[in-house]
Amino acid sequence: MKSRIVPAILVGVFSMGIGSAFGDSHGMSAMKLAEKKKCTACHTVTESDPMAVAPSFMSIAQRYSMEESDRLVQVVLTGGEGHWGNVEMPDMGVRKDVTPKEAEKLVQWILDMDE
């Protein structure tokens, strides 16, 4: 009896560890951050919405490489225009404030979409 309980407990513990590791990686937590910071008010994940104001995260991932992540972090932090067509990304204050750490997390998550 004891030999059956221990493996079942270990499987449960490891499953919870894997689930929380996945949730804490770039996946859902980054998407929730994008929603919380209102990134999804203008950006979509894929090109599925033709009425989106800004490029999809997937389009951004396909256009930029990981070597350009520092530049993209600055775009997230400062806004501006000329990054993608003529639409201006609002400055902080107009949109939700994003910390440098949050911007890095969002950019990493977006660029990982192209892998």
From TrEMBL:
<feature type="binding site" description="covalent">
    <location>
        <position position="43"/>
    </location>
    <ligand>
        <name>heme c</name>
    </ligand>
</feature>
<keyword id="KW-0249">Electron transport</keyword>
<keyword id="KW-0349">Heme</keyword>
<dbReference type="InterPro" id="IPR002324">
    <property type="entry name" value="Cyt_c_ID"/>
</dbReference>
<dbReference type="InterPro" id="IPR036909">
    <property type="entry name" value="Cyt_c-like_dom_sf"/>
</dbReference>
<dbReference type="InterPro" id="IPR009056">
    <property type="entry name" value="Cyt_c-like_dom"/>
</dbReference>
<protein>
    <recommendedName>
        <fullName>Cytochrome c-551</fullName>
    </recommendedName>
</protein>
<keyword id="KW-0813">Transport</keyword>
<feature type="binding site" description="covalent">
    <location>
        <position position="89"/>
    </location>
    <ligand>
        <name>heme c</name>
    </ligand>
</feature>
<dbReference type="Pfam" id="PF00034">
    <property type="entry name" value="Cytochrom_C"/>
</dbReference>
<feature type="domain" description="Cytochrome c">
    <location>
        <begin position="22"/>
        <end position="114"/>
    </location>
</feature>
<dbReference type="GO" id="GO:0005506">
    <property type="term" value="F:iron ion binding"/>
</dbReference>
<feature type="binding site" description="covalent">
    <location>
        <position position="39"/>
    </location>
    <ligand>
        <name>heme c</name>
    </ligand>
</feature>
<keyword id="KW-0408">Iron</keyword>
<keyword id="KW-0479">Metal-binding</keyword>
<dbReference type="GO" id="GO:0020037">
    <property type="term" value="F:heme binding"/>
</dbReference>
<dbReference type="GO" id="GO:0009055">
    <property type="term" value="F:electron transfer activity"/>
</dbReference>
